[in-house]
Amino acid sequence: MKSQDIRSKFLSFFEDKKHSIVPSAPMVLKDDPTLMFVNSGMAPFKEYFLGNAQPKNSRLTDTQKCLRVSGKHNDLEEVGYDTYHHTLFEMLGNWSFGDYFKKEAIAWAWELLTEVYGIDKDILYVTVFEGSDEDNLPMDTEAYELWKEFVSEDRILKGNKKDNFWEMGDQGPCGPCSEIHVDIRSAEEKAKISGKDLVNQDHPQVVEIWNLVFMQYNRKANGSLESLPDKHIDTGMGFERLCMVLQGVQSNYDTDVFTPIIREIETISNKKYGKDEKVDVAIRVICDHVRAVAFSIADGQLPSNTGAGYVIRRILRRAVRYGFTFLDKKEPFIYRLVDVLSAKMGEAFPEIKTQKQLVENVIKEEEQSFLRTLDQGLVLLNAIVNETKGDTVSGEKAFELYDTYGFPIDLTALILSEKGLKLDEKGFNEELQKQKNRSRAASEMSTDDWTILGTDAEEEFIGYDTLEATVKLTRYRKVVSKKDGEMYQLVFNITPFYPEGGGQVGDKGYLEDSRGDVVYVLDTKKENNVIIHFTKNLPKHIDQSFKAVVDANQRFRTECNHSATHLLHQALREILGTHVEQKGSAVHSKNLRFDFSHFSKLTQEELNDVEDFVNARIADKLDLIEKRNMPKEAAIAEGAMSLFGEKYGDTVRAIRFGQSMELCGGTHVKNTSDIWHFKIVSEGAVAAGIRRIEAITNEAAKDFYFENSKAYSEMRALLNNAQEPVKALQNLQEENAALKKQIELLLKDKAKNLKLELKNELTEINGVQFLAKKVDLDASGLKDVAFELGSQSDNLFLLFATESDGKALLSCYISKELVASKGLDAGKVVRELGKYIQGGGGGQPFFATAGGKMPQGIPDALEKAQEFIK
Ligand code: ATP
Ligand code: MG
């Protein structure tokens, strides 16, 4: 069965069981601060499990792109070495939110595997939770009894908390689970040892394919468990592993999910898969990693120097490194795999198809820049090797190479071993640990459980219509972090505060109780669909109502920038073309930043056109037309722009100004004329094929023009109120250049005269032409004169002194012949004479200089010069 069919069979099986099929969420979730990437199918549904939102259907099914490269679930180091762990993989899931529970989940899983997919039940094992003393939990006998209906008891295994109790993090919904494992070994192998003994033993052919999680508890901050009011089903089946089973192969990499990419790598590298284990590991690493990196870029997460972007950069670098070391690829090549990838997966995940060009460009440039790093690193490593005494390179040096220059440690070790040297791995690991401790200490944070007050519903955001409201606190908690110290997070029944999102900053403002006590809201954010207000203190009277007031000024200026961002987006697509796609935006009260895909620098003319376009729409006084709760399809049909990497619901909010229409949850001006004026302040590159524009509006634009006009007036005044100041300035510059030329000529003349003068002053002492004199020339003039005199004589000894800005400089020139015949050394001369001017210096035997801070010593130094030739 082809992988495409395997995927669609899963989805349609659960659709028949009344589940709604939903698309995969993007891999980076914007309102979950606890996760860098989606690492399991349940992550995008956390808000439903936590009871913060209601799904449209209590039964859903999907395939979710998951990335396990950081945090609690990190498989990165396994990838390439085994045949069934990936960085990016698809997790097929069926979901029940307070609807069906264990009985249906178990029966349907069995039906799908054995009847629809036709897997022989004799290769399957299932596990159930054995219970845990630590958590005071009994064995999951309910699941055991249910499985017994389908599976013989010798194939139902009991598992411990590590394997059979699923938790998404340190806190939150969790529960026991039942895993389904396959044993795809040959009959011969099976005769040697029973599959039963290999389950959960990291055997490459006895692997877990599906995990059915029965969510029924909530883990609190103090580690204790409480029962959830509603029980849920969360299942996750590894798509690539399922394909391995159904296609009758022994490795995920031998399924049609990967073989086209492997063939392409073979063609590009001229190496064969399956001949040499090192090459095989490299090929697996590369074909795995290109998927992770490509999908991440398509979802809007570009490689960068921090956070999630840095993780992506490291994954790509790992692939480059394996290509570099084991496939001899010293040129970018990974980007060339995006073609097959998009042909293979573009149907299920169209984002990879539509953004192919961008993905290729970004990967290519990253490859290029890392290959340059590798080149530089090799040079540095050579220098380290040359400095090393003995046979071991210090761990500290290797760490510096790794940390500062991004040079991979395994490559360092490999190169050293080729040179017969050792690496002090212990020292390296110590440095690494120190660094980890530093960053852990910096990000340490403790979060209390929510304190729930009353049962008021937590309602929606009302800040589109009002900036002030009477609100009641529904829950709060304390969070302590190194960065912000002690903070409180407050949730209200209703709120006018806009939570950070869609690039727009969160609102600030204050809360006031009836006695006039005020607490400031420093920021507002959304977390798993709950709007959280950040304050330094807990309000005194938490059970009362508060007047919640948004800082209107900041909100208005932010709105000007947000609406201008929409107009800018429209302008860019109109002027540069429809290949322009939003790749990020940051809308603050001070300015706006807009990142978009485009392949070259914007010309001044294009920038002018963009400004004109936006300002024309501001002048047109376009009214805001806002449609809330529009069906998403209808909005798209009307021409609304939607963004990759955003998670949209079924109904959306559409924002229109004239012909500009976008799906957007942000806040906007009522009329474009509020923006007053739009001014671009910078344009530049952020990554290959991605440009960034920064711009200002309203007050900031006014300030900008005011400051400029002030500077202009001042400049004109300096130019004697010239009618044409630009021309006057050009004249000044030309005059200045002419004067500089004249001075140069004069200085040359002066040096020439000086040379003649000095030549006449030479005296002969002991057969040496000698002169020690204070002259009025700069250092380079001095050197010229010395060398010119020197070229005319072969027994010259010169000592010149100059003084400028309260400092003294000695220069000594000695003909090479004298250096040889008399053993003289200009370096020694200036070092010794330098003492008189309280300075030091050095150079070569025939020319050396010394600087000092005591010009008063110059006469003494000159006086003593003779002694060197006597
Ligand atoms: P394993 O023990 O094999 O690492 P797991 O216990 O981490 O698996 P779960 O967290 O239960 O797996 O995830 C559900 C399913 O997702 C697994 O049954 C497996 O089929 C699949 N899966 C998990 N991790 C990976 C991975 N890194 N690559 C591919 N598939 C995976
Ligand atoms: Mg795992």
UniProtKB/TrEMBL annotation:
Its EC number is: 6.1.1.7
Asked whether the keyword Metal-binding is assigned, the reply is yes
Q: What is this protein called?
A: Alanine--tRNA ligase
Q: Which UniProt keywords apply?
A: Aminoacyl-tRNA synthetase, ATP-binding, Cytoplasm, Ligase, Metal-binding, Nucleotide-binding, Protein biosynthesis, RNA-binding, tRNA-binding, Zinc
Q: Which residues bind Zn(2+)?
A: H562, H566, C664, H668
List required co-factors: Zn(2+)
Stretches assigned to the Alanyl-transfer RNA synthetases family profile domain = 1-707
A Pfam family this chain is assigned to: tRNA-synt_2c
Q: Which reaction does it catalyse?
A: tRNA(Ala) + L-alanine + ATP = L-alanyl-tRNA(Ala) + AMP + diphosphate
Organism of derivation:
Siansivirga zeaxanthinifaciens CC-SAMT-1
| Annotated InterPro entries | aa-tRNA-synth_II/BPL/LPL (IPR045864), Ala-tRNA-lgiase_IIc (IPR002318), Ala-tRNA-ligase_IIc_anticod-bd (IPR018162), Ala-tRNA-synth_IIc_core (IPR018165), Ala-tRNA-synth_IIc_N (IPR018164), Ala-tRNA_ligase (IPR050058), Ala_tRNA_ligase_euk/bac (IPR023033), DHHA1_dom (IPR003156)
Q: Which family does it belong to?
A: Belongs to the class-II aminoacyl-tRNA synthetase family.
